[in-house]
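pls ignore typos typing on phone
glutathione + seq
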Amino acid sequence: MALEMVPVMDPAMAPEMAQRPGAVPILYSFRRCPYAIRARLALQLAGLRPGLDLELREVALRAKPPELLQASAKGTVPVLVLPASGDQGSTVLDQSLAIMAWALDRHDPGDWQRLGPGAAAAEKRQDMAALIEQNDGPFKYHLDRFKYAGRYPAGEPGDHRAAALAILRQWNRRLEQAGAGTGEMTGEIAGASDGRDCTDLGWGRGPWLLGERPSLADAALLPFVRQFRLADPSGFDAESDLSALQRWLHQGITSAAMAAVLAPPWGLRQPWRSPSWIYHLALAEEWQEAQRQGSYRRSTRGLSLEQVGFIHASRADQLAATYRRFYGDAGPVTLLTIDPQQLPAPLRYEPAPQRGGDAGSDRSAEAGGEERAAKVGDESSEGGEKGNELFPHIYGPLPLEAVLNAEPFALGDSP
Ligand SMILES: N[C@@H](CCC(=O)N[C@@H](CS)C(=O)NCC(=O)O)C(=O)O
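k done
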């Protein structure tokens, strides 16, 4: 497939990619989600590069974009949307394991899937499936009830930690046996499809859950064991009968592969912004005031809804420029994600007010308003539209219910 180079770090580019859907697969992801991490590990191993071979859409789980829900109504991440090809429409993979399998079917240099013929390979595949089932079932069940104890008030987190530890001890025993069985690890991938050394993949020297070399099971379980440790790092590190598992985890989380999927571009923290929503930058203290009052009534920096007649907003692709022009020096800024469907007030797409024009001229009333009024003139020529670019304007107060998400905003890979 011929792939176009698309920079991923400029948030203004994302909607541009969205305007030519179908060009590359789209991955909806969430940086810290263990299911998404395992999918990214496989996609990265298979050689896919975000921004080149695939569009990465980092979403906020509390404000899932309509495009994600349209692709998969269950609303979990990861979701991979494959472009239509030939007479086949686009395909949606909405389970992390299906995404891993798709990626590894394309390219599996370390034979993570153990696809070889014969009874031994079949046994490995069965082993792998059982490990993953144990992870995704009982281990995940107890992990959630230990890590997010507040969400499960009926349970006793200590009991769930103990039940999860019992499973971890089984995995520890496997690793001990694998270490004993293979002796000193050489880092060789015996029988790997292209004979590459596993250290090429940044996965360290083993031992591994299936013995001699990494497999799908290591990649599928590692993000969950990482999560277990993160819930109580010193408690996990103090478990003296888990030393093989502790080494395995340490090796995995410090591996080049894991570093790559947690850092940009795979671990992009700049969320993907839906073109179906509109956005407003608010001074942090003005948004706090709105929460106390029950609605937001500022138009733009330094001007109220009453002064201007409407609330300025931006489309996703206009946001970065709006920030640069008006808020770059404003201190803490909160980005409001607004669902236009939930606005009681009229929403109109209009050119930005011109300097000396109607609402724009109001800006001269504010401190330093003249300079900003001039910038409003600039804004209207944003994107080379020569004054014809349309911006969303909300003709009335913004009710809190229409704000899907409020988050600190900064350009680029903001933490
Ligand atoms: N079985 C799914 C599970 C995915 C899953 O549960 N992801 C979590 C995030 S780690 C999610 O999207 N939860 C939805 C939510 O929190 O609203 C898979 O393997 O992909």
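The longest helix spans residues 119-147. The pocket of glutathione is lined by residues 30, 33-35, 61, 75-78, 95-97 (CB under 6 Å). more later
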